[in-house]
Amino acid sequence: MLINNKEIALYVHWPYCLKKCPYCDFNSHVTRQPIDINVWETAYKNEIEAEQNILGKKTVRSIFFGGGTPSLMPPKLLESILNQVSKKWAFSKNIEITLEANPSSVEIKNFSTLKKVGVNRLSLGFQSLNNNSLKFLGRNHSVKNGLKALETAKNIFKRVSFDLIYGLPDHNEKMWEKELNEAIQISGEHISAYQLTIEKGTPFYASYRDKKFELPPEKTLLNLYNMTDELLSQAHLKKYEVSNYAFKNSECVHNYKIWEGSEYCGIGPGAHGRLILDNKWYASHKFSAPKIWLNKNLKKKSSLYLNKEISNIERAQEILLTSLRLTKGIDIKEAFNKLSINSNNDILNENELRKFKELNLIDETDSLLKVTNKGFPILNYITNNLIL
Ligand code: SF4
């Protein structure tokens, strides 16, 4: 039997940025046309109401404003969205409300107001503590801007995280060690460290294909990953997900819930969700292009591009995929039982599992599956081969 958990995680997407970074394949856009905030406010409110009509009573455990650059939203708009959510659903007592922000001066100015309207966790797109790396990544800010933004954020919010990107063309162990040590000195409770990936359709994809730059060799990338684990863990920032590190009990609740396989609802252009309706799982997806999303929403009060039932087997495969990102792993018996699945046969390849266990890439104790430290650097390879 599915258990309809009354708690829900809410994701709100703001699709605009000041500049498109050359490595970014997110649903983010730069617009020269003025953005009519009143119209956007109406659209977000419509969508929250439409979702509430479908989902009924819920308690919101977390809200995550992502993008794009949601810290560019006028705080009044963010406040209005939060008001609408609180009118439609109950807030959990310890609700986590995260906002992604970039270190521009416009955004820093708004931090205090954002806290007043309810944001209680800030995730800063710092990306690098090296000006040459920031330039290569096409970022709008300098290290100085980043440090200022981080200091301001830490003075205002109790919970602050920042992102770093490693595996840049000139990165070697010495450079990354220096950067990590500097990051530890200034960090709060949480750091996300992502390896640069070259995504199709981005300017970096074309430059890399045309050999305008090269990435460090595999061996170096492996060393950088292991060094990240080691240095952050010495600073009590323990890895809890393949690219996320936090002090104890300071993990990002929102992302954790989603990786564990909880129900979540997406609001805004391109947002997707996994929802339980009449005891069945549904995948929902909103129109991605901001103008189309807005037009559909204002005309029909719904911007749903897709709302399709997914089988329990498909959902089990998804949950296995995301849970294996977590260092705590997944109790497959418990997780699959919740979905009324009694056998692993349709979910995972037992031969591959045996092989990965022999190679010490996966650990299985009773029904608890965990990727090992040796396995994490090749997590995608493992899940591609393991999950049917
Ligand atoms: S600021 Fe973030 S979302 Fe916007 S283009 Fe850069 S990486 Fe993408």
In round numbers, the mean pLDDT is 96
What is the count of structural domains? 2
Q: How many beta-strand segments?
A: 15
Major sheet size, sense and barrel closure: 9 strands, mixed
Structural class: alpha/beta
Kindly report how far apart the N and C termini lie: 22 Å
- Secondary-structure element order, N to C: EHEHEHEHHEHEHHEEHEEEHEHEHHEEH
CATH architecture of the largest domain: Alpha-Beta Barrel
Major sheet strand order: 7-8-6-5-4-3-2-1-9
CATH topology of the largest domain: TIM Barrel
How much is the radius of gyration in Å? 21 Å
CATH class of the largest domain: Alpha Beta
Helix content: 40-55%
* Secondary structure tally, helices: 14
Which oligomeric state applies? Answer: single chain
CATH superfamily of the largest domain: Aldolase class I
Bound ligands, each once: iron/sulfur cluster
Low-pLDDT windows of residues: none
Strand content: 15-25%
